């Protein structure tokens, strides 16, 4: 039982040791560029540092040629003004290794000539643990279903107004042809004057009487 407990404690200790050792990282400053006056200015080292994560226990390695460059750890004010007069630490033999034993900002420059003013300077931020707090992801708003597509009503084509030039129907109707009334002829004839008719009758009667007498006498 005791031997099993000892083995368990030993395994826990070894696991912690391996984790601690694996957490330490050696960073070669500038990678293949090394510690030189960068052709593009200070942005070369600021871009390099932005892509790295530095934690307490890591090591920086500055690859440079002795007597051509050096590396000095300085304050932020000295870093901004490229002032090499009062460095925190200075290493003149390359390559130089610097252990990162404290969290916070660390500033490094080259003190030779105008190398710092020409961009040979490095600023990094060291954290106490590699476990970084993930940025809170914004709450995902449930996507609302797309609105039902409403069929677009067909716009009625405007009715063509009647042509204003159309001849309006004549309101006045042609009067019917006048009825021709035929006046019947007057059937009544004007009688002869009464005096003449009586004379004619007297003459006729007289003539008839004479004729009758003549006939009798002959027979």
SSE ordering: HEHEEEHEEEEH
Q: State mean pLDDT (0 to 100 scale).
A: 72
The counted number of beta strands is 8
Distance between the termini: 212 Å
Counting DSSP H or I runs of 4 or more residues, the number of helices is: 4
Please characterize this protein's 3D structure.
The chain has 219 residues and is an alpha/beta fold. Helices cover 28% and strands 15% of the residues. The chain has 4 helices and 8 strands, in the order H-E-H-E-E-E-H-E-E-E-E-H. The strands form 2 sheets. Strands 2-8-7-4-5 form a 5-stranded mixed beta sheet. The chain has a 3-stranded mixed beta sheet with strand order 1-3-6, with no helix packed on it.
Question: How would you briefly describe this protein structure?
Answer:
With 219 residues, the chain is an alpha/beta fold. 28% of the residues lie in helices and 15% in strands.
What key attributes describe this structure?
219 residues; alpha/beta; 5-stranded mixed beta sheet; 3-stranded mixed beta sheet; 4 helices; 28% helix
List the helices and strands and how they pair.
Elements: H1 2-23, E1 26-28, H2 43-50, E2 54-55, E3 59-62, E4 71-74, H3 76-81, E5 89-91, E6 96-99, E7 104-109, E8 121-127, H4 194-218
Parallel strand pairs: 1-3, 2-8
Antiparallel strand pairs: 3-6, 4-5, 4-7, 7-8
């Amino acid at each position: 039982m005791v031997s099993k407990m000892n083995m368990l404690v030993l395994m826990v200790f070894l696991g912690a040791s391996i984790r601690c050792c694996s957490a330490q990282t050696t960073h070669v400053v500038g990678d293949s560029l090394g510690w030189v006056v960068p052709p593009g200015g200070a942005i070369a080292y600021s871009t390099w540092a932005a892509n790295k994560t530095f934690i307490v226990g890591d090591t920086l390695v500055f690859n440079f040629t002795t007597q051509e460059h050096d590396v000095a750890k300085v304050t932020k004010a000295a870093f901004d003004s490229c002032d090499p007069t009062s460095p925190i630490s200075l290493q003149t033999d390359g390559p130089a290794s610097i252990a990162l034993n404290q969290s916070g900002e660390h500033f490094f420059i080259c003190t030779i000539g105008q190398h710092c003013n020409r961009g040979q300077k490095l600023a990094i931020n060291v954290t106490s643990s590699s476990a970084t707090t993930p940025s809170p992801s914004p709450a995902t708003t449930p996507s609302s279903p797309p609105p039902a597509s409403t069929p677009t009503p067909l716009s009625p084509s405007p009715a063509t107004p009647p042509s204003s030039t159309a001849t309006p129907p004549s309101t006045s109707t042609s009067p019917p042809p006048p009825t021709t009334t035929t006046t019947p002829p007057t059937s009544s004839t004007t009688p002869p004057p009464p005096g003449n008719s009586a004379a004619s009758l007297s003459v006729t009667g007289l003539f008839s009487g004479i004729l009758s007498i003549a006939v009798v006498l002959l027979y």
